[in-house]
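Module 6 notes. Inverse folding takes a fixed backbone as the condition and produces residue identities as the prediction. Think of it as a translation problem where the source language is geometry and the target language is the twenty amino acids. Below is one complete input and output pair. Work through it position by position during the lab.
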């Protein structure tokens, strides 16, 4: 099955809001930033590769959107704080926070997973999200409302062959969403997570043959691989007031492969 033609959904209440999407220089984060900008959201593009960030900002500005590139490694609290200061200087307190930065790791037998690799994957995929929320939360509380959408993964939703520490970190993200949601509901801040399964990114395009991608597609009840736009559309919904009675959930964007 081929992906549906790309129509960017519109949520009029998003217009004029300010969003930070971490890990948005490529892939899912970049597409989500484009979707937000198309809804007239002022969007902060983040990653560690300045040239890649500028490309996304350029694309958004070329179609009349507003974007700010901020280099920061989201595993480092001082760099996140520096990003927050740059964002607040330019746009003030933010409305939408989407901590999407993360990275995968090699699939190895348990006895071959080094302590260093374990700590790296926990830091990249779980601690980074805690640190990002901790930094931006005071501004969101001042704002008096907001939506946080965390990037999780199907690897954290059911046992799989994904890297052990990556899977454990992603299961932690789902719990982070629940606990934050419980604490922050009283401040009109909602917290949800999105758990994608296989989404076509640069790595997949480079490392999997067309035939392998077709075989993978057949393993999903909806017989195709996911696209970054599938995740971006879910992020818009969870960011907008259309989901105002939804908090603490993890939304599986997984072609039906994960049903929990
Ligand atoms: N693709 C999938 O199938 C899939 C499935 C489930 C979950 N996810 C999750 O979705 C997110 C995006 O995945 P993707 O496929 O779009 O990956 P991608 O194409 O590799 O993009 C990852 C993005 O995150 C940034 N990033 C990574 N580590 C960072 C750090 N420490 N600080 C700041 N930025 C960082 C990268 O930018 P720089 O390299 O410039 O820093 C890049 O913009 C990841 O968290 C991933 O775990 C993906």
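Target side of the pair, the amino acids:
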């Amino acid at each position: 099955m081929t992906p549906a033609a790309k129509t960017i959904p519109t949520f009029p209440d998003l217009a004029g809001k300010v969003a930070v999407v971490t890990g948005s220089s490529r892939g899912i984060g970049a597409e989500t930033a484009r979707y937000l900008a198309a809804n007239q959201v002022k969007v902060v593009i983040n990653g560690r590769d300045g040239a890649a960030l500028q490309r996304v900002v350029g694309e958004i500005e070329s179609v009349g959107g507003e974007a700010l590139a901020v280099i920061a490694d989201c595993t480092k609290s001082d760099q996140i704080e520096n990003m927050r200061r740059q964002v607040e200087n330019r746009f003030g307190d933010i409305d939408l926070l989407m901590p999407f930065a993360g990275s995968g790791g090699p699939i190895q037998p348990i006895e071959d997973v080094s302590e260093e690799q374990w700590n790296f994957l926990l830091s990249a995929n779980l601690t980074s999200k805690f640190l990002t929320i901790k930094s931006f939360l005071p501004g969101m509380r001042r704002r008096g409302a907001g939506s946080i959408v965390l990037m999780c993964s199907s690897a954290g939703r059911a046992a799989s062959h994904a890297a052990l520490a990556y899977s454990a970190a992603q299961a932690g993200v789902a719990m982070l969403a629940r606990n934050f949601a419980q604490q922050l509901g009283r401040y009109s801040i909602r917290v949800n997570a999105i758990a994608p399964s296989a989404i076509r990114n640069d790595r997949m395009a480079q490392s999997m043959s067309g035939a392998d991608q077709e075989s993978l597609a057949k393993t999903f009840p909806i017989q195709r691989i996911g696209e970054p736009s599938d995740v971006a559309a879910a992020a818009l919904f969870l960011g907008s007031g259309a989901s105002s009675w939804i908090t603490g959930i993890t939304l599986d964007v997984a072609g039906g492969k994960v049903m929990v």
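Reference fact for the lab report: The domain at 12-253 is CATH 3.40.50.720 (Rossmann fold).
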